[in-house]
Input
Amino acid sequence: MPTRLAGMTLASAAVVFAVFCLAEAPTFSQARATYKAPRTPDGKPNLNGIWQAVNTANWDIEHHVARQGPVFALGASFSVPPGLGVVEGGPLPYTPDALAIRNVNRDNSMTRDPEVKCFMPGIPRATYQGMPFQIVQTPQNILMAYEFANASRVVYMNTNDPSPSAFWMGWSRGRWEGETLVIDVTGLTDQTWFDRAGNFHSDALHVVERYTATGPDHLLYEATIEDPKIFTRPWKMSMPLYRRMEKNPQLLEYICVEFAEELMYGHLRKRTGR
Output
């Protein structure tokens, strides 16, 4: 017989408790609306720190089930974990031609994915690549440093100048909208992807990022994506970011070029015969 508590089974009690928690706990959006971050000396929200996404977006930004990894012989190692996705509003709105390219990318990710080649990840992928990144604020500009490939970018807070060229990490212009840091990113190359699943973009990519503190150790990250060459309409992704809380958190060097050299250039090695 099931154990009873005040005439209620433990299973029923658990359901009641869960409903109570859902009714009483503030949602992520409510926290965003009510929380006010500490201030820097110039009065801006203080987002300084080392942050990290905890999700499966780098495998696939869309909803996905678990699947076999790219190397069958490795079994479960490097298999793809399931994920609910970070894209809002359903499947990515590819044009038919772009969707066909995405599918080829997905089937050939081990040779096509820029991450395999140690290319800098670009925006927004650098945010959720599975490694920490650091925000360093000054009154003039904001530095964002990423562990993968030692990538970094400067967010220029006091300029309206257009991008002077195309960059792996783009040209970032920032502004504050109340509690939110808004970053307008242009000047991106077409040599980065959104994830390991082949989701890609063109050199017309335009990203508008929003970073909002929802608590002392959490940020809400939102990115609106526009690319008329690849997508039929703008779309959005969002996710929480978490402050790294271990003792003495820091970014470490992850210089992966040496790991990719043989893959990319091994066929060019001079061969000597007898």
The longest helix spans residues 10-24.
